[in-house]
Amino acid sequence: MSPEEKKLEVDSSLIKNLGRLSANLTFNGQLSGSDDLEISGSFTGSIEIPLHDLTIQRTGRVKAEVVKAKNLFLHGQLEGLVKAERVVISETGIFSGEIITSKISVQNGARFKGSIKITKDYHP
Q1: Per-residue pLDDT of the chain (124 residues; tens, 9 = 90+)
Q2: 97, 117 Cβ separation under 8 angstroms
């Protein structure tokens, strides 16, 4: 095997699956799965990926009945009920609703309207 081929050989266990809703897409409905998810577009409905990460990018707009994710990283807008082990709202994040989590970080500049319930343990 040549050195170039060795560089291209990757342990498949290190590759993380990632679903994406790009900035030009709109989705309405229920979404569930077993991959991490990144949203840059518009989403309305419910998201259930309790063992995986959800990232809402700056252009992402989510209006959710419920969001269940292991980790939520919010850079865009989210309205609804969130159940997650860890929630990080960045300085560009805008949140409205209720959060139930074990760990939360709200960066300086973030906009938050709602309630937070801190739980000892996360149960997907």
Answers
A1: 555 554 445 444 445 688 888 899 899 999 999 999 999 999 999 999 999 999 999 999 999 999 999 999 999 999 999 999 999 999 999 999 999 999 999 999 999 999 999 998 877 7
A2: no
Please indicate, yes or no, if residue 9 is contained in any of the structural domains.
no
C-alpha 86/C-alpha 111 separation (Å) is 18
Amino acid at 122: Y
Q: Write the DSSP assignment of 20-68 as a string of letters.
A: EE-TT-EEEEEEE-SSEEEE-SEEEEEEEEEEEEEEE-TT-EEEEEEEE
Domain that holds residue 89: 20-118
How remote is the C-alpha of 47 from its chain's centroid? 9
Asked, for residue 13, whether it belongs to a domain, the answer is: no
Helix (H, G, I), strand (E, B) or coil at 16: coil
Q: Would 2 be classed as within a structural domain?
A: no
Number of domains in the chain: 1
What does pTM read for this prediction? 0.85
Q: Is residue 74 part of a domain?
A: yes
